[in-house]
Amino acid sequence: MAILSKKDQGLLMDPLADNNPITIQVLGICSALAITAQLKASIVMALSVMFVLAMGNVVISLMRNIIPSKIRIIVQLIVVAALVIIVDQVLKAFAYELSKALSVFIGLIITNCIIMGRFEAFALGNGPWRSFLDGIGNAAGYGLILIIVGFFRELLGSGTLLGFKVLGDPIQKTGLYALGYEDNGFMLLSPMALIVVGIIIWIQRSRNTKLIEEN
Amino acid sequence: MANTEKNSYTVIFAVVMVLVVGSLLAFTASSLKPTITKNEKFEKQQNILYAMGVNENVEGEAIFVPTDSVQAIFNKYIKEQLIIQNGKITKDSSAYLIDLKGQLKKDMEDRELPLFIGEKDKKDYYIIPMYGKGLWDAIWGFIALDENYVVQGVYFDHKGETPGLGANIKQRYFMDDFTGEEIMNDTKFTGITVAKGNNDPLNERKDDGKVDALAGATITGNGVTAMINSTVKLYIPYLKDLKI
């Protein structure tokens, strides 16, 4: 990491833990609830958001001195929507299978509040390189939580990971299922995602008491 | 640097931004359109072939025939493509390009309903396209029948069902269950029901016209039931005419 200054490292690493977009800033919760029933979907969503956030941050950062402040939110929205549509079209033309697999995620990216949040809070006031790092860092922090939640929901809800039956076959009654274990179908529903995120927040704050707000 | 707070600047900026982004998107869309249309065409052929059992499935995973040879395989297995309009049946080699969604919106007599007849191992397959509604958006698919109205295979797809729940209608463990079910009870059309609690998770009873539903995907499952029952029903009078 010697190529990055201390400050730049912070841009990349802070969102992973002490300034995590989901657990600390409570942004991007909607997609964290919606698509984490499977680990694969979580990973795909994390990568898509990383691409759009990093690119969008760079574009907004390059335009930061010419954007009229009165319409800056609309400009940000146009940039992210245009980026997402271009990505979608290019995938459909040259990686059709992949675009089928991504299906709903592409559209969901636009609605992710982390993206508008980082444009507004960071890219409008910083240069392109630092904005790029900030985008990667925040998307990684977001993705990390998504993957943790997806891991537990798929494992406990469906007994699989990335589609592999790691706990045995529920119908043939092999592995854990032979001992009477049952999948918890409740894990597949959105409320459990919120509870899992809540548990992560609890663990994080109990390990790092600085994060606890004083009343 | 111009004063970015002035109203005139804001208006000019907005206009230029819209023009630039608009033309960029229009350019991307129109230059990629031919490639995208071709991909969609091949996908439809792959779907039709999948329903009649021409695929490269490995255990637990649905895999289509390869995209670069699908045209040749399609020509080999699909021996007739028909269009049914107001009781008249005509042959049309581009029937597979018909968009069923648009046809279902039309009046009964204006509808052009595509039907495909495939042949594999000296056995005829009658492949019917389907279109319906899931929980969030459209679902569609193809169902292949033999001359006794027994399902030989299905393919389902969806636009935006929930990943991990409704989206699993395109998983093999769901689609495979349909094979062997009958859509007719003697001479009466019964369709196939995606049923909760039919106590048959392995789908061993093939004569009940029911397949086991997906957990957590009630509405999508009901959508599949409705889709099969409403679209396949339209074809039943003509399938009899075709002496199947």
Explain what this protein looks like in three dimensions.
The complex is a heterodimer of chains A (215) and B (244). By secondary structure, chain A is mainly α. Chain A has nine helices and no strands. The mean pLDDT of chain A is 85. Chain A is 62% helix and 0% strand. Chain A starts with 5 loop residues before the first helix and ends in an 8-residue tail after the last helix. Chain B is of the alpha+beta class and 244 residues long. Chain B has a domain of 164 residues. In chain B, the strands form three sheets. Chain B has a six-stranded antiparallel β-sheet, sandwiched between helices. In chain B, α1 crosses α2. Chain B is globular and about 80 Å long. Chains A and B meet through α4 and α8 of A and α1 of B.
Structure at a glance:
With 215 residues, chain A is an all-alpha fold.
Order of helices and strands of chain A: HHHHHHHHH
Task: Choose one word for the global shape of chain B.
Answer: globular
Roughly what is the average pLDDT of chain B, rounded to an integer? 87
Strand arrangement within the widest β-sheet of chain B reads 2-1-3-4-5-6
Q: How many structural domains in the coordinates of chain A?
A: 1
Number of helices of chain B: 5
Helix content of chain B: 25-40%
Rg over alpha carbons of chain A: 19 Å
What's the main sheet of chain B like? Answer: 6 strands, antiparallel
Q: What coarse outline of chain A follows from CA principal-axis ratios?
A: globular
Largest interface: A-B, 37 and 32 residues
Give the overall average pLDDT of chain A.
Answer: 85
The beta-strand count of chain A equals 0
Q: Note the total helix count of chain A.
A: 9
Order of helices and strands of chain B, N to C? HHEEHEEEEHEEEEH
Beta strand % of chain B: 15-25%
How would you describe the oligomerization state of the chains in this entry? heterodimer
| Structural class estimated from helices and strands of chain A | mainly alpha
Low-confidence blocks of residues of chain B: none
Report the count of strand segments of chain B: 10
First-to-last CA distance of chain B: 77 Å
